[in-house]
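To the wet lab folks,

You asked to see what we're planning to order before we commit. Fair enough. Below is the target structure as tokens, and below that is the sequence we designed to fit it. If anything looks off to you, flag it before the synthesis order goes out.
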């Protein structure tokens, strides 16, 4: 029997987990600047380290999967508590409106800072040259894209489609939803099920050169991004429907999932090391499938491990964790231009890559917190992102989830 106070603690835990994943964005985007291998972004510091590549691969394995699982969980919670119509209105307020408000200035800031960074790389001086415009800031036809807000954009549409799809399924195939939910719930707590979930993602990722779906930040994402991220999101819906069984299972077995994920992560690295460096963006099919399967199995295992560990150890109310959770949405929005900006300032300094990474992370964290506390927390911006201050206590118990 799951008591009400235990359920509230678990929602504290999942809210804290979501905040931790948002804060990890700072570490991820700073590490990308110092990657020694092929960079995920066009700007790169003059000091690089393979440790940055490993850190990016490590965080990337679980960060977005956890995001989408928790997003599905909290959308299901909203529908259960408020109903479909109120859920749609809530998602429009918390996702669509912040995207509309923040995307234009963020795109401009990132574009300008990226140009300054590229100018420093190409010419060693400060300046702007539109001829150095990074392709990652624009789509294939030169149109702007969603930047790091691609998660917000995709989640918005998944959230709006969920009530509609649930209604259609209840009317047309009423038994399909519960049956699929029970099936996925069973897969989410057995080794064979995790193997099957990873195989599904590998089948999607085989369209990519290294077997992994990479977000293109497009306003019209390809079907592979919908399928890959959508599977984690749908599992989040199932997690809410079967939360008593699944959360209890992950709390008991979180260390097992953490260990299994580590083994699979190392296995994916071994597969990757056997592929010549010049072929890693166009792997042979067998290597691509093996790498993709092991890496995606890691994603499932570590997602379940984090859900279980946070539910076990970080489910109690904490003023510090509540503050960090409240600030996480703001941090998610503004951290990318800050990491680029501080990266520009650090570029050219003869410091080791690790020192520069720590300096950038600390500076971005400090400025994010300062701006949140003085410009967001008790202002209209805070209301836009987190609701009114009186609603934050409700959010801590899961009644007012944000994304």
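Sequence we intend to order:
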């Amino acid at each position: 029997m799951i008591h009400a106070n235990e359920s509230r603690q678990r929602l504290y835990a999942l809210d804290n987990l979501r905040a931790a994943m948002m804060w990890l964005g700072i570490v991820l985007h700073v590490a990308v600047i110092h990657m020694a291998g092929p960079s995920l972004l066009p700007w790169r510091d003059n000091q690089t380290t393979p440790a940055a590549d490993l850190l990016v691969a490590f965080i990337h394995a679980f960060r977005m999967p956890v995001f989408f699982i928790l997003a599905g969980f909290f959308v299901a919670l909203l529908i259960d508590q408020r109903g479909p119509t109120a859920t749609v209105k809530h998602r429009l307020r918390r996702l669509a409106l912040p995207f509309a408000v923040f995307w234009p200035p963020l795109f401009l800031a990132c574009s300008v800072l990226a140009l300054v960074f590229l100018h420093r790389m190409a010419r060693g001086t400060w300046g702007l040259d539109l001829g150095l415009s990074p392709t990652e800031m624009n789509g294939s036809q030169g149109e702007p894209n969603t930047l790091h807000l691609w998660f917000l954009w995709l989640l918005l549409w998944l959230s709006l489609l969920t009530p509609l799809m649930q209604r259609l399924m209840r009317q047309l195939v009423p038994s399909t939803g519960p049956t699929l939910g029970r099936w996925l719930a069973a897969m989410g707590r057995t080794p064979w099920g995790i193997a099957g979930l990873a195989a599904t993602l590998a089948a999607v990722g085989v369209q990519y050169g290294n077997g992994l779906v990479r977000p293109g930040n497009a306003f019209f994402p390809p079907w592979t991004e919908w399928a890959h991220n959508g599977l984690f999101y749908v599992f989040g819906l199932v997690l809410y429907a079967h939360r008593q069984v699944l959360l209890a299972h992950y709390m008991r077995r979180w260390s097992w999932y953490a260990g299994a994920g580590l083994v699979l992560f190392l296995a994916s690295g071994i597969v990757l090391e056997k592929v010549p460096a010049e072929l890693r963006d166009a792997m042979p099919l067998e290597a691509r499938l093996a790498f993709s399967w092991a890496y995606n199995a890691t994603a499932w295992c570590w997602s379940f491990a984090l859900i279980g560990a946070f539910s076990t150890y970080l489910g109690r109310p904490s003023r510090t964790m509540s503050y960090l959770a409240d600030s996480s949405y703001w941090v998610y929005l503004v951290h990318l231009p800050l990491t680029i900006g501080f990266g520009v300032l650090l570029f050219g300094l003869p410091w080791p890559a690790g020192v520069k990474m720590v300096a950038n992370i600390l500076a971005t964290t400090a400025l994010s917190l300062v701006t949140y506390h003085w410009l967001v927390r008790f202002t209209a911006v805070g209301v836009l992102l987190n609701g009114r201050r009186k609603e934050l206590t409700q959010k801590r118990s899961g009644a007012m989830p944000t994304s």
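Structural context that might help your review: The radius of gyration is 21 Å. The CA atoms of residues 115 and 375 lie 27 Å apart.

Thanks,
Computational group
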